[in-house]
Design goal:
Layout (H helix, E strand, L loop, with lengths): L2 H13 L2 H8 L3 H15 L4 E3 L5 E3 L1 H28 L4 E7 L7 H12 L3 E7 L2 H13 L11 E5 L8 E8 L1 E6 L9 E2 L8 E4 L6 H13 L5 E5 L3 H9 L5 E4 L10 E6 L6 E7 L6 H16 L1
Parallel strand pairs: 3-4, 3-5, 8-12, 9-10
Antiparallel strand pairs: 1-2, 5-13, 6-13, 7-11, 7-12
Length: about 300
C-alpha cells in the first residue's frame, strides 16, 4: 500500500463517482478504478458498492478506512511540517554553556533576540567554566552522558582555548578595570595606576575556573612589578563583587562587570594599557545542527550591534 492509494481512495469516497474523482486527481478513470481494486484486494474487503460503472456507494468498512486514512494523512502532514521546521532551525533544543561575565553584557541581548525570532526553540542554559565548556562540547560530540548531563552545542568562553579542534569566533574584546569599595582611598581617582595596587588584598577566583582571565590579571600585576596578595578566593563574579562591597579587598575584573551595580562598590579604569579580555562563541563544526546555525547568526548580529 502506498500513499497514492490513500489519496485515490479518499477522492473516490468524497466524490462517490469515479469520473469526478479521476478528474480531481488529474488521472484517467480506468487506472483509478484499477488502483481502488488493488487496494480492496490488499485489504481483503470491499470499500465501495458499484451502483453503476462510474457511480459508487461507500461500504461500512470503507467508512472506517476513510476515517483512518484522514488521520494517517493528517499525521503525515504534521510530520512533514515538523521535519521542515527542524531543518530550518525553527524548532528543537539548543544547549548553551556560558561563563558568568557574559550575563552582565552580551548574553541577555543574544537570548532575547533569539527568543523573539525562534520562540519554539527550547534553550537549555548551563553556567560552566571555559574548561568545562570545552569538555561539554566533546561530550556532546561523543554522545556521552556525564554526571549532571553537561552536554552543550555552543558556549561562551574566554580565550584562549586548550582544544584546537573547536570552532570559535571572538565576539567581544574588553579591558580590565578595578572594583573597590566606595570608601577606599583610591576610589577618589578617575584611573588607578596598577603599581598602587601592590599592597592591596585581592579577591580572586582559582586559576582552574578561568585560566585565560586569571593569567591576564597576573600579567597585568607583573607589569606593576608585583604578585597580587590574594586575601580571599571566590568562585562567582557576583560573590567577588559582594566581598568588595564588604571591604574585604579589591578585584581586577573585565570592564563588562560595570553593569553589575552593587551598593558600596565603584569601578575605576586602570591607567596603564591592560591585556584585552577576549570573549568568544565556541562550537564544534561537525555539530552544526540547523538551530545552532540560526543561533550563531543571532550571536553575530548582536555582537556587531554592541
Amino acid at each position: 500500500m502506498e500513499l497514492r492509494h490513500l489519496r485515490y481512495f479518499i477522492a473516490v469516497a468524497e466524490e462517490l463517482h469515479f469520473s469526478r474523482a479521476a478528474s480531481r486527481l488529474h488521472i484517467a478513470q480506468p487506472p483509478l478504478s484499477q488502483q481502488i481494486q488493488q487496494l480492496e484486494a490488499e485489504l481483503g474487503v470491499e470499500l465501495f458498492h458499484r451502483k453503476t460503472k462510474r457511480q459508487v456507494q461507500i461500504t461500512e468498512a470503507g467508512r472506517v478506512f476513510l476515517r483512518e486514512a484522514y488521520q494517517l494523512l493528517a499525521h503525515l502532514e504534521v510530520a512533514i511540517q515538523v521535519t521542515q521546521r527542524t531543518g530550518r532551525g525553527e524548532i528543537g533544543q539548543l544547549r548553551v554553556g556560558f561563563i558568568s561575565p557574559v550575563t552582565y553584557d552580551l548574553l541577555p541581548g543574544i537570548l532575547q533576540k533569539f527568543r523573539q525570532q525562534f520562540p519554539e526553540v527550547e534553550l537549555v542554559l548551563q553556567e560552566l567554566t571555559t574548561a568545562e565548556q570545552e569538555q561539554a562540547l566533546r561530550d556532546c560530540a561523543e554522545r556521552t552522558a556525564p554526571k549532571g548531563n553537561r552536554r552543550i552545542h555552543v558556549g561562551f568562553v574566554h580565550l584562549p582555548l586548550e582544544d584546537d579542534t573547536l570552532n570559535w569566533e571572538c565576539i567581544q574584546q574588553e579591558t580590565l578595570i578595578v572594583a573597590l569599595a566606595q570608601t577606599h582611598p583610591l576610589a577618589q581617582q578617575e584611573s588607578i595606576a596598577v603599581q598602587s595596587l601592590a599592597n592591596e588584598q585581592f579577591i580572586l577566583f582559582p586559576r582552574y575556573l578561568g585560566v585565560g582571565l586569571y593569567d591576564k590579571i597576573m600579567a597585568l600585576c607583573q607589569q606593576g612589578n608585583f604578585t597580587p596578595k590574594v586575601g580571599q578566593e571566590a568562585i562567582q563574579m557576583q560573590t567577588i563583587i559582594g566581598l568588595v562591597s564588604a571591604g574585604i579587598g579589591i578585584a581586577i575584573v573585565p570592564s563588562s562587570l560595570q553593569n553589575l551595580q552593587r551598593t558600596g562598590v565603584v569601578y575605576r579604569a586602570i591607567a596603564q594599557q591592560t591585556p584585552l579580555i577576549e570573549t568568544a562563541v565556541v562550537w564544534r563544526g561537525e555539530e552544526e545542527i540547523p538551530v545552532l546555525r540560526k543561533f550563531l547568526k543571532v550571536v553575530n548580529s548582536v555582537s556587531k550591534e554592541l
